[in-house]
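Chapter review: from sequence to fold.
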Amino acid sequence: MSEPPSPGKRSFLRTALFVLAGAVASAITLGTGRFLFFSAGKQPRREFSSEVLGRLDFEMPLHVPEAGVWIVKRRGDGAVSCLDDRCTHLGCRFSWNAERKVFECPCHGSEFDIEGNVNRGPASRPLQRLSTADPENGKIRLIEKGSGGSG
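The token string follows.
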């Protein structure tokens, strides 16, 4: 009796290629899914206590993470503006650099001025501004405007 032929180099390479292609396809699928559903987590409750306004200093942004917002009080007229705390590039949370007086995104290096305008990319749109509704039961509700710009 003769033995069945042993697998050759071609058979081994074909199997290795299928395994490699499957691994690459899985990585691409997982990466694409993560990108598409990046901000699909729990949305912040868009309100905060009116007591927060008493803690504001002129031109020193205050982060209110439970509302997903940075609050800024302007020096000249004392007006308060609210900026979404997610970068307009890919939605990363950014921080305030008090020394340089800019918002800095740690993910890709975007920078925004105190008004939310882009100083340095890759972000190409200003931070989203939120307007405030009149206080109700000691809470200030935030209303989303169009993304970025003034208004």
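Two observations follow directly from the output. Residues 47-144 form a domain with the Rieske Iron-sulfur Protein fold (CATH 2.102.10.10). The mean pLDDT is 82.
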